[in-house]
Amino acid sequence: MTKIAPTVPLTTEQAGLVQKILDFTSAHLNETKPAVFTVFGDAGTGKSVILSHLFDRLQTASRTEPDSVFAHTENYFLVNHPEILKVYRQIAGDRPHLFKKDFQRPTSLINQAEQGKVHPDVLIIDEAHLLLSQADHYNNFYGHNHLKSLLAYAKVIILVFDETQVLRFKSYWTEKRLQHLLVPFTHDNYRLTHQFRMQASDELVQWINDFTHAQVRPLPTTAGDHYDLRVFDDAEDMRQAIVQKNQAVGLSRIVATSGYPSTLDGGKHYITEGRFHLPWDQYNYTSTPWAELPETIDEVGSIYTCQGFDLNYVGLIIGPTLSLDTDNRLIVNLDRNTDVETFKHRDDLTDPQEVLAAKRQLILNTVNVLMKRGVKGLYLFAHDQRLRSFLKQSLNN
């Protein structure tokens, strides 16, 4: 994850975008209403490294440049994902003008702002598609929408957003919903399209994007000269291949979609597929991200530990939530979903057809997120035999 540190060189496009956002921020810093800049882009398009550079420059100016428009501004970097937050706080330890306290969860900052303990000028939000869009009393958020609450305190907000990484109803967003919320405010945006994470062919990335929208077609004829794409008949064979890659290059893990026993009760719950038998990821109480802990090679990662992370090789178990019918059309089996957080009720979703479509898309988004974790390779195993056979046959052909 050092790939998102401010020391990573930027492309000409990325450096230009950082400057564009800084210019936007300085132009709107002292206006009566907040302004918002949105960076759109799929998983792996370099959104986080842009924010990392941006925040480093902002905080350097705030703390060392008395003649800058940003001098003495109070700025925070927010991400609603505990594992990604650990990475940013690690990076802060290596940068002279970034402090670990600069990096916060949104709820924590909102609660501090309500108590008058912080007075934010500029907020940078990574993975803004994870912001809560309804109250979550379990996690001490009593407002109605993270972004709305943050707009009440900040002068400028910069966020990155990808609607195909929305995974739960309590953080249910679409680009349309986001743009509707931003109508009253000055706002600008930029869309990133180049894939940086995966060393895969454009054809394979497009295949994953199509799969995310339930369009199933044969795998592309080339995954890329430097990308390893495999389909396995046996999940245990896939695990052993991932273990070998982990021993050779590190940061290689098995991950899975929903559809297997899973309860947040502190106990171990196992995924079993024939000879394959491993527990789900355990809650990570350490300051080290889950994927960097050596012992997690013997666990199965989920969206809760892997979203936003680079792995070298990822072995994905596509669980019982997805299957193929006899006409090779993708079926989303909502009744096989086992993640109780996914479909928690929302009062503002009342149209049954909209709810059904949203549920289907959340399941597909999970696959999209997990398929795009691997820098060097993607290994696949599908619980559904018809889907597994289709993928293997199309790859062999």
From TrEMBL:
Gene3D superfamilies found in the cross-reference section: P-loop containing nucleotide triphosphate hydrolases (3.40.50.300)
Domain AAA+ ATPase: 33-184
Pfam families in the record: SLFN-g3_helicase
Name of the protein described by the UniProt record: AAA+ ATPase domain-containing protein
